[in-house]
Amino acid sequence: MKQGITDTPFYFTSDVLKGDNVKYSERRLGDLKSVFADEESWEAMDKDTLAYKVSSLEIAPQGTPGDLYMGITYLYPGKVGKEYFMTKGHFHHNRECTEFYWGVSGEGMLILMDEDRNVWAERMGPGTLHYIPPRVAHRVANTGSEILVFAASWPSNAGHDYETIAREGFAKRLLEINGKPELV
Ligand code: M6P
Ligand code: ZN
């Protein structure tokens, strides 16, 4: 049982999440097969290239209703062909579960898609806050030349449904066209 005054057990400074049981994971280009449209360009790239890393604080076991998780993602700048480096993207297994993303540093775009496959995007940057509604898939692209850092908080019973995206993809892609990001 907790009593008295203690130091905070967790630190979430501008861009670091650390503390006991903070999980770390990373995705390299090799883990992102079939994610990018231009498979030929992907084939030609070094599969060891780090695309993004995630630190997350997941206190309750996955699936626990009512608890919250927190994470921070570091997404490197780069492109596969004309397509910006991006996260895999997912729906929540539990489609009713929502999420907050917020921009910490760098420049990017949150790409959202509802179940009718309508796609839209929100610019991300330092201090931007994004509410991801129920039944909306989400992925982030780094459109800048610096690392993009964004944080997230989501329910512990959300779960990641990557399969639907692997099978059907997003209906639009964020490509660099004439030096600018466009949803195509
Ligand atoms: C955010 C959260 C995490 C997610 C991560 C990377 O930190 O939404 O749940 O895992 O981004 O995104 P993805 O799982 O789509 O690769
Ligand atoms: Zn999510």
Can you walk through the features of this model?
By secondary structure, this protein is mainly beta. It has 2 helices and 17 strands. The protein has helices at 39-44, 163-168, and strands at 11-12, 17-18, 22-28, 50-58, 68-75, 79-80, 83-84, 91-92, 99-105, 108-114, 119-124, 129-132, 136-142, 148-155, 160-161, 174-177, 180-183. The protein has a 6-stranded antiparallel sheet, with no helix packed on it. A 3-stranded antiparallel sheet has the order 11-10-13, with no helix packed on it. Strand 1 (11-12) and strand 2 (17-18) form a beta hairpin. The model has no long low-confidence stretch (mean pLDDT 95). The structure holds 6-O-phosphono-alpha-D-mannopyranose and zinc ion.
Order of helices and strands: EEEHEEEEEEEEEEEEHEE
How many strand elements? 17
Helix count equals: 2
Biggest sheet statistics: 6 strands, antiparallel
Judged by helices, strands and strand pairing, the structural class is mainly beta
Overall mean confidence score, pLDDT: 95
Helix content: under 10%
Q: Could you give the distance between the termini?
A: 54 Å
What fraction of the residues are assigned to beta strands by DSSP? over 45%
Which distinct ligands sit in these coordinates? 6-O-phosphono-alpha-D-mannopyranose, zinc ion
Give start-end ranges of low-pLDDT stretches: none
List the strand order in the largest sheet.
3-4-5-14-9-12
